[in-house]
Write a structure and sequence with these properties.
Layout lengths: L10 E4 L3 E4 L6 H8 L16 H18 L3 E6 L6 E12 L2 E10 L8 H13 L8 E5 L4 H9 L2 E3 L11 E5 L1
Parallel strand pairs: 5-6
Antiparallel strand pairs: 1-2, 2-3, 3-4, 4-5, 6-8, 7-8
Helix pairs in contact: 1-2
Amino acid sequence: MTTAHSTARTIVAVSERLVLTQPQEGDVEAMFAIHGDPETNRYNPHGPQRDLAQAQEMLDGFVADWARDAVGYCAVATREEPEVIIGYAGLYLYTLFDEQVFNLYYRFRPSAWGKGYAAEAARAAMAEALPRFPGVPVTARIRANNLPSRRLAGRLGLVADPEGRVDDEGQLIHRMA
């Protein structure tokens, strides 16, 4: 199992079973283990990452988001093994249809699936970020055939855009009801 870099991590949120931390430079192997796995990318329009260079580019973006916006996607670990990254989840500020919104994101290694971690991490990330950014709506961009993600978005209170809008990649827009 890939572990996180040994330097102290900045904790964003702690839930019943999980610890969410800001991504950091040493996370590239964990990033690639999760985002380079074809199974975790079954519905990703870009497919899995091909190499560590792509993982580093994504990680650099995650780190830059935190530096710029003081919010972003988090590395997720269990409280029992806080040094082992099992996934990434959180909120990213971006502009959608001329409106500043959050994109809700969750991706976990297959060994973490079916345990409710994605929902728990998403709730923890929203509980931490939303009070600091009042009025910024939460959205999720999800492929129509990604039923597991769409069900999770529904459990988190997001509904498909009533106008049927999609993003520039054809993903359905879900929005906090």
